[in-house]
Amino acid sequence: MNPTTYINEKGHLNQLGQMLYADAMKVQKVNQLPTELPEHVFDCDYCNKQVRVLYSLIADLDYPLESHPILDKSEKSSLSLSENSDNLDDILQQLMAEAIQIPAYEKLMETQMAYRNEDAIGISLQQPTDNQLCKEGVDFHFTTSQKLPITLTIESHQKRIFREKFEAETTHIHVDFQPKSDFPTGLYYWKLVLKGKKPLVGKIYIY
Predict the structure, then answer these.
(1) What residues have CB less than 8 Å from 47, skipping those under 6 apart?
(2) Cα separations in angstroms, 3 against 23, 72, 111, 136, 180
(3) CA distance 131 to 80
(4) What is the DSSP annotation of the chain?
(5) pTM of the entire structure?
(6) How many Å apart are CA 200 and CA 113, to the nearest integer?
(7) Rounded CA gap, 55 and 41, in Å?
């Protein structure tokens, strides 16, 4: 685990780092984090508060405590697909079987089903579909009646890959997977958020 993966340009834990730290608190494995992260959270009032707020959201959720896909594994290198994997279903199944999930995102996806409606989220999504397989890029198509700016974030288990804020009334966002080295094969989580609304979260697989 590279600690710089979880630090933003201001020297604070980024969103992925905050979620990983909250996960570590939940599964009682803070000692398995890089030592720089607990030291920073101890010294930084801002990050300490952010982590504790996030932890409060997941504290009562039912987590399996026996293993964690990031804390209990060394980072995997990019997945290597079989040379004869021409069938897209086979490729998707292989990626899903080898994916390193982020528990906090998985729980968000479960709990959002309770409020996944346009009133709470402000967005009605057409694309991408759940677990969509993508190669060169991904398109987000959605409708909204809210005249609010929208932020799209895409992250892997290792780092945030993409984050951009779009002006109000945007209904289509295209993300190119360039340079390809920034988008290695594997699982990616995406999050669309209208200002002041609950997030809409999903995942795609890139090959």
Answers:
(1) 12, 13, 18, 40, 41
(2) 15, 15, 29, 29, 23
(3) 19
(4) --GGGGB-TTSSB-HHHHHHHHHHHHTT-GGGS-THHHHHHHH-HHHHHHHHHHHHHHTTS----S--TTTTSPPP------TT---HHHHHHHHHHH----HHHHHHHHHGGGT-SHHHH--EEEESPTTEEESSEEEEEEE-S----EEEEEE-SS-EEEEEEE-TT--EEEEE--SGGGS-SEEEEEEEEETTS--EEEEEEE-
(5) 0.61
(6) 10
(7) 13
67 touches 58 (CB < 8 A): no
Token pair recorded at residue 151: 């932020």
Amino acid at 185: T
Query: Count of CB atoms within 10 A of residue 176's CB?
Result: 11
141, β-bridge pairs? 127, 172
* Tokens of residue 176, six digits: 């190119």
pLDDT tens string 27-64: 878 878 887 888 889 889 999 999 988 888 887 777 66
- d(CA 49, CA 9) in angstroms, rounded, equals 19
